[in-house]
Known about the structure:
The complex is a heterotrimer of chains A (about 290), B (about 950) and C (about 250).
Chain A: H1 5-26, H2 33-55, H3 75-100, H4 105-127, H5 139-155, H6 159-186, H7 191-195, E1 202-205, H8 215-220, H9 229-249, H10 254-277, H11 283-286
Chain B: E1 17-22, E2 31-37, E3 40-46, H1 59-62, H2 64-68, E4 78-80, E5 89-91, H3 94-111, E6 116-119, H4 126-136, E7 141-142, H5 145-148, H6 150-160, E8 168-170, E9 177-181, H7 189-201, E10 205-209, H8 215-219, E11 222-224, H9 231-244, H10 250-256, E12 262-264, E13 284-286, E14 293-295, E15 309-311, E16 314-318, H11 319-327, H12 334-341, H13 345-361, E17 364-366, E18 370-371, E19 377-378, E20 381-383, E21 386-390, H14 392-395, H15 400-413, E22 423-425, H16 490-499, E23 507-511, H17 523-531, E24 543-547, E25 560-561, E26 572-574, E27 586-592, H18 605-615, H19 633-639, H20 668-674, E28 678-682, H21 695-704, H22 720-729, H23 739-748, E29 768-773, H24 789-792, E30 798-801, H25 802-807, E31 815-819, E32 824-832, E33 839-843, H26 860-863, E34 901-907
Parallel strand pairs in B: 6-7, 6-23, 9-10, 9-21, 10-11, 23-24, 24-25, 29-33, 30-32
Antiparallel strand pairs in B: 1-2, 2-3, 4-5, 4-25, 8-22, 12-16, 13-14, 15-16, 17-20, 18-19, 26-27, 27-28, 29-34, 31-32, 31-34
Helix pairs in contact in B: 4-18, 6-15, 9-12, 9-13, 9-15, 12-13, 22-23
Chain C: E1 12-17, H1 26-37, E2 45-46, E3 54-55, E4 60-67, E5 74-80, H2 89-92, E6 99-101, E7 108-110, H3 120-124, E8 130-132, E9 139-141, H4 146-149, H5 162-166, E10 172-176, H6 183-191, E11 207-209, H7 221-224, H8 236-247
Parallel strand pairs in C: 1-11
Antiparallel strand pairs in C: 1-10, 2-3, 4-5, 6-7, 8-9
The complex binds ligand MGD (2 copies), iron/sulfur cluster (SF4) (5 copies) and molybdenum atom.
Amino acid sequence: MHPAPSVIAFTTLSGLGFGLLFWLGLGYPNVTGWVAFVLFAIAYLMAVGGLLASTFHLGRPERFLKAFSQWRSSWLSREGICAVAGLIVMAIYGAGLVFLGTSWPLLGAIGAVLSLLTVFTTSMIYAQLKTVARWHTRLTPALFLSLSIAGGALLAGQVAMATALLVLAGIIQMVWWLQGDKAFAQSGTNMATATGLGSIGTVRAFEPPHTGNNYLLNEFVYVVGRKHATKLRMISLVLMIGLPVLLLLAPFAHLFALLAVLSHLIGVIISRWLFFAQAEHVVGLYYGKR
Amino acid sequence: MAYQQPDLDTSPKVSDEIRKTTCYMCACRCGINVHMKDGKLAYIEGNRDHPVNKGVLCAKGSAGIMQVNAPSRLRSPLKRVGPRGSGEFEEISWDEALGIATDWLKPIRKNNPEKLAFFTGRDQSQSFTSFWAQNFGTPNYAAHGGFCSVNMAAAGIYTMGGAFWEFGQPDWDHTKLFMLFGVAEDHDSNPIKMGISKIKARGARVIGVNPIRTGYNAVADDWVGITPGTDGLFILALIHELMKAGKIDLDYLARYTNAPVLLNSDPDSPEYGLFLRDDDDKPLVVDRDTGALTAFDKPGVRPDLSGTYRHAGVTHRPVFHMMAERYLDPSYAPEAVADRCGIPAEKIKTIAFELARVAFEEAFELDREWTDFRGETHKTMTGRPVSFHAMRGISAHANGFQTCRALHVLQTLLGTVEAPGGFRFKPPYPKPATAHPKPHCGVSPDSPLDGPHLGFVQGPEDLALKPDGSPARIDKAFTWDNPMSSHGLMHMVISNAHAGDPYKIDTLFMYMANMSWNSSMNTGGVMEMLTDKDDNGDYVIPHIIYSDAYSSEMVAYADLILPDATYLERHDCISLLDRPICEADAAADAIRWPVIEPDRDVRGFQSVLCDLGARLELPGFTNDDGSAKYADYADYIVNHERKPGIGPLAGFRGDGSDVGRGDVNPDQLDRYIENGSFFASHIPEEASYFKPWNMAYQDWAVGMGLFDTPQPYLFQLYVEPMRKFQIAAEGHGERQPPDHLRDQIKSKMDPLPIWYETDQQGNDGYTISALTQRPMAMYHSWGSQNAWLRQLHGHNPLYMPTRLMREKGLSDGDWARVSSPHGEITVPVMEMAALNDNTVWTWNAIGKRKGTWALDKDAPEATKGFLLNHLIHELLPPKGDGLRWANSDPITGQAAWFDLKVKIEKAEDQRESQPVFDSIKSPVAS
Amino acid sequence: MTQLPEQTERKLGLVIDLDTCVGCHACVISCKGWNTENYGAPLSDQDPYGADPSGTFLNRVHSYEVQPEAGPAQLIHFPKSCLHCEDAPCVTVCPTGASYKRVEDGIVLVNESDCIGCGLCAWSCPYGARELDAAAGVMKKCTLCVDRIYNDNLPEEDRIPSCVRTCPAGARHFGDLGDPDSDVSQLVAERGGMDLMPEQGTKPVNKYLPPRPKDTLNDETNILAPLLAPVEQTDGFLGWLDKALEKL
Ligand SMILES: Nc1nc2c(c(=O)[nH]1)N[C@H]1C(S)=C(S)[C@@H](COP(=O)(O)OP(=O)(O)OC[C@H]3O[C@@H](n4cnc5c(=O)[nH]c(N)nc54)[C@H](O)[C@@H]3O)O[C@H]1N2
Ligand SMILES: Nc1nc2c(c(=O)[nH]1)N[C@H]1C(S)=C(S)[C@@H](COP(=O)(O)OP(=O)(O)OC[C@H]3O[C@@H](n4cnc5c(=O)[nH]c(N)nc54)[C@H](O)[C@@H]3O)O[C@H]1N2
Ligand code: SF4
Ligand code: SF4
Ligand code: SF4
Ligand code: SF4
Ligand code: SF4
Ligand SMILES: [Mo]
């Protein structure tokens, strides 16, 4: 799949943003006034920024309101609704903390759940796709959720939780990668089923339908940089999990915390780049590519 | 919640108007419905009523709209201002352009008409352009047939009075076995696809003989991946097997072919190998009933295939004896040819079995009574449901004429030609070689030529030689080098004109041929010849006039450009006088008319010729008072008469109801337009098969104006005129070939089909066959300017068989250096398994010169695309005998494109295919 | 809308005959032409005369080489457009309801005025049947020529998809695959019509007719051999000829 910067930015930023909101909703850290304002601002910048980034991916962004209508079947629609609901609930909750110095724990809990649901629905946009075997697994929501909560904890300054959750997320990430590498082959979809010609013999793509380029090739058959995948996975894992954990284990220092957050962010971006770049859409089979 | 869905107008308006005309995105000439919206072209679909395509349309046809919108269209007459080849032009008015042309041509006509060479490429108006050239008086006229497929056309006409190609088609409704040799696309492109579909739906078998398995060969039930150039051998092995088993149609051979005709069999006689004839010059046969010597066509005669006859001390044997003697020889046995053909002997035999089985065990009768030319009435028509079709795969080799002949002999032995289920001619064919004109080359200053340029020689006396024996034509057609070159040799014109051999010319006038690129061999060399200067600094070819509709590679090499309108903007006539759109069941012709008006300062080329003809005061184009005879081509189409009552169009003559013959009808074009721009006249049922011998057909054809009298004839298994050339080469007769050609003529011009290996001298180390194929969605060079089509084929890899890929260590996308004795190219490669394992190929004419066709100079066509033509030379590699032999068939002069042999090595990755030529300045860049 | 209808009244679709498709691309261009002028936004082209031309097409013809265990490799041309799936994932993923499946005939369409061009439907389609038009920013796909098949402005015989009407090889058939008696259903039954990627669970309506067995002539060598028994050799070919001629 084409690793569109807008989609990478969207999933990374909104994941962290909603992760932070989740913790804030639960009252970790239990802050009010300016401190609350700063934390909420960071969370909203990330969550809303991510959502906005995702609209760059749209052909007709001006019609985005229409996307809320199909919650009965569409994970994308559900995600939009959860996100907006979560943001609204958390805004009220946050306003209480910032301006009134009051905490409405029930509202916070609802906001936290909506934030998690948002991340979950985001992950389901990918996990639902049978066409991308690497994504089509329960581990995908697990991965998104664990990274979101861990990253949120990191941002929220919940050192112990963050350390534990980062390690958990790291493990899920590794399992997801290892499983993902086998997923396409295990999915049962191959040149033979794609063409129905397998009963005659071994199928090989000959001429492509057009020598010219097309949307499908650009969007689904992305092979650039795949050969560096293993290296990138290592780098991602170190930046996303390893380094932040080490920094957290070290005696607390603001600089270390900042570094941990930055390192984690870059690591997640790389992981998300790989998430797309390594994903093989079955349509590639028709072009003799994966 | 109830299921909701948007309201949808499923009945929107389609268009304001439909204008019906004829497609010219290729030479197939399908009928099209052009939908107009707000006065603009909107959509093109096939015309369901049209005899050629019956509603279907190919990719090119549907993309016509993008051709007519293409930025590459020439916009105005152009005068060259920079050096030739630079593409620097100035736009001029038509008056100035026609003035220049007249100034160049008038003195030539007055003094030396042969100094004009007028060659017209992919011309669909040859009866008109040849009429113009004949009026001008130059012997130097031909269209593209010589480099295209003259082997096929000439072999067919000399053998059966018609060829595959545009002259006939399989009986798609009845055939049960269809064998296809060397065809990727053909001129009959939609009809072949419709036909294949028809016979596949019936469960009939298709056998494809082709080194490459794509397109038609991909859908064929059985594939024979033959070694290029060996089809003749394969076919003769089939003949061997069938004759050996007696699985041949003796009745058919006796009645309809010259198999029973008696040949002088005395090697010492000067008439050795000629027919025994009576005083009326009719070939003689022995009548089986009476044993008497009789003219072949005498009513009631039953020609004997077996009996010999002694006359004046000389034994005369029927042709069939000679055939038996030759083809039963073990040297033609499948085992003897298998290795050379690359086909296992078992497979050759199996195919022979299958031919025999279908032809004889699945024979059937059509309940149609008919009477033959000997007056015998047949209650039924016997079907032999085996049909064949072939094209350039067998004809574009230097042994192609004989190979095509072999295939016709095979068809004839099976009795399938013009039999139900077999191969059927399309009017005006069948028409034997003897009913065609002979070539003419009688030049006199200030007057027309003494007759038509092209034709069918019957012996050395018909060659186009000057009194001193030198070639009369610039292309050396109809000379000892290639005596039966019925379509001329367009591919030799530029090199001969450049060499001044046989003489120098003044003006080269060309129409619709991309001669500095894809229609030339030795493309780089041709560019040099076109730009070469003499010691005075003048161009060796002094003047070049060219008519194209688009900014092609050739435009840059002309001094004067006469821009043509596109096919939707002009009148055209697809006439029974040259290559009409007939089907086996109907005579048909068609027109094009301006369904839109040009938005540029361009004119239909034929109208320009009418104008130029008048300016030059050519008799056919000028009234007695000196005024122009035809206002434009439309005027010519309607009012020209070749013979009284016979004009370019056969339909709606006289008061509109006359067919074939009739007075001029001023409303004729309107009637055509109302009728979908075509006219068809159906052949009566009893006349629909066995046409060469069927009196009902002969009478119908006379009525249509195809002939003046019935012309029944025999198929010429043995082509006597070829023997006459051999006799000359053996030293008899007045006209004698030069000594260096005697052996070639003796050995190659065998009157019975033979196979010989094409000249491989100089090819040492070059062992891999390299071929091209036409992509179905592209027409030669024209497709690349089309925004839709160029997305399909924007560049062309060299396809290589798995074996060679492994051997050379190549994988997809790698680059390879491909060289021939003549040149070298470096190109990207791609693996293909369904390919003869010693053959490589690519799509034809996808590669483009930078700066042409209004494409970006980094267009993939110009960077990755390439031509194989750089590797092919019009002459064979030197043999050390001081002569350069032509890379052509020695009989017809057909360009031997597919004899190319190469060697291949892996090359380092390239940015662009090699060679790269300088960019041409675009005459249409705004 | 975004939900699929429980069932559709008919299942209109195409049956594509891989045995006769010659790979000519006629259907590709005819589709491009019709759909540029008709339903929804025109199918645009980017850099049409430039170095990297691309464009929107609703139908593309692939080709595959198949190597059987024995015998020569085969080449199969393979046209592909929307299969109008019964369980169309492209419909259910659509957040706006722009994608829908029609109740009356099962045609899967995009209502372009609702489409935000998110691309998700294309992601969910296993067949590559949807292309986002770069100029219009909306999703394009085969409409089964819904603006032809019921169009009163067209002659009755032309109320079929543009690609079907144009196909010179007769490799494309159109009809109701929900009706077991329809011509297309019969064809599917006779020729063993198949689904592409059945394991994706999309239940495509369009069916593909597999190529007939190829290169079978060799198997018949022994059955056919007696046909070519040589004529009696005793008095040679000419002796045989005389005898054969007697019988005529
Ligand atoms: N390697 C290789 N080379 C080959 C062949 C091959 O098989 N392999 N095939 C050969 C054969 S058979 C042929 S016929 C030739 C064909 O080669 P060409 O005769 O060169 O054919 P085209 O490329 O069709 O181009 C003819 C010219 O006609 C112009 N043209 C198109 N439409 C019009 C029009 O309406 N009016 C005018 N005035 N001009 C127009 C085009 O712009 C183009 O410049 O190629 C030959 N070259
Ligand atoms: N779409 C489209 N249609 C066209 C044209 C076009 O450019 N595009 N051009 C038109 C013109 S001008 C012409 S002349 C016709 C030509 O129509 P075709 O005769 O079909 O010409 P080619 O495409 O050159 O295909 C030649 C075929 O012969 C095969 N071949 C080569 N050598 C041998 C051999 O030794 N034996 C056998 N058995 N096969 C061999 C090649 O593999 C190839 O498949 O097409 C016409 N129709
Ligand atoms: S075959 Fe195609 S390009 Fe040629 S005339 Fe017919 S529709 Fe036009
Ligand atoms: S083929 Fe693709 S676009 Fe068409 S209905 Fe099926 S899933 Fe949807
Ligand atoms: S691209 Fe349009 S049709 Fe497709 S899912 Fe998005 S909104 Fe729906
Ligand atoms: S049915 Fe219509 S829209 Fe669909 S592929 Fe055919 S022509 Fe294109
Ligand atoms: S038009 Fe017909 S034969 Fe040509 S590619 Fe399409 S389906 Fe195949
Ligand atoms: Mo040609």
